[in-house]
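EI: anyone free to look at a 374-residue chain?
SC: sure, send it
EI:
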Amino acid sequence: MPSTSPQRRRRALSRPVRIVLGAALAASAVACLPVADATTPASRSTHQQGKAAAPALQAWIYPGSPGEPTCDAVREYRDGRLKNGVLKPEYWDVKSNGTLALQTTDLVPCNGYSAANASDVKAHSAEQYTTVSAMDRATVAALVNSPARRAAAVEQLTALVKRTGFTGVDIDFEDFWSWSAAEEKGYETFLAQLARSLHADGRKLQVDGPAELQDGDSPFSFAKVIKTGVDQLVIMDYGRQFNTDGAEHCWAIAPDKWVRDVVRYAQSQVPDKDKLVIGLPSYGYIAPDPCDTNKVQDTVPLSTISKQPGYSTDPAVVRSRREPGSHEVRWTRGGRIYDYTDRAGMDAKLSFFKGLGVTHVSVWALGGNPWFSR
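SC: here you go
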């Protein structure tokens, strides 16, 4: 794997869900690696979904340095794939002291903020949200527990969306499982303040939340977050490999059975379909085999996976490696496991979401990864 930017590591930092999937995910180690859930293939989902409209599409864009796959994001979205969809560039980072840092192009040349970059994003999408990220509990707490820093952040975020003409703000604060009750309360207060500020100018607020299976999986409360005035809750329904149990192959990123259970719980908490967005992974990973979840190289783009030992585009090989219960392509070589999603896998995952009644999907992420065939 090439040099990894902090942004690329982020989506790996907080993915545990306490409830562990059972033995259905632990099939024997063979060339076509363990089947996560063979009872829900795309064909069955497609048969059941009738003529329902395909989910509306969104995608995140993260900043990086020249030569990194994320730099391909601009070329990708300029092909018109999200002309009627949503683009979400990560222009903001929360510093350890709880203040915001605007990630301008002089700091991150690829996909960083500039007036020209924001204008280009706006020209190639129907809606746009600027993402602000905080990836650990201490950083989140430094912002949400301080009335002064909350107020300053609300002012800065609102000012930028006004200046760019963007639709709104996407809040990506993570490490949910370690939050205290006080931090969750401060977070909800911050969201309510930001929602009021954005709504006063006709803007919107998105919030990224964890994949949960039941009440109490984390301090993050779907219902309470929606009550703050959030316009859409985005569930990051991926990263299951970090819960692999025992010395076996690392699990798939988004196995169908787990995805289905996460979606069903989210729908029970957010019954308004237009307020619920489900995250769809387009990336891959590389990990030790047997699995060591502390050594997973996460969010590896397909453009990097395709250069790894044993990668093949031969249709027969790809078919033999595709896991029916996740639609991901997986193989082992030299004590490592490789997992990725190709275009066919993206189509199958989208079809599966459609069959679950999902109407909005957000892809992590543009930049060296596959896209849907439509």
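EI: The chain has one domain: 7-12+36-42+52-283+342-364.
SC: 👍
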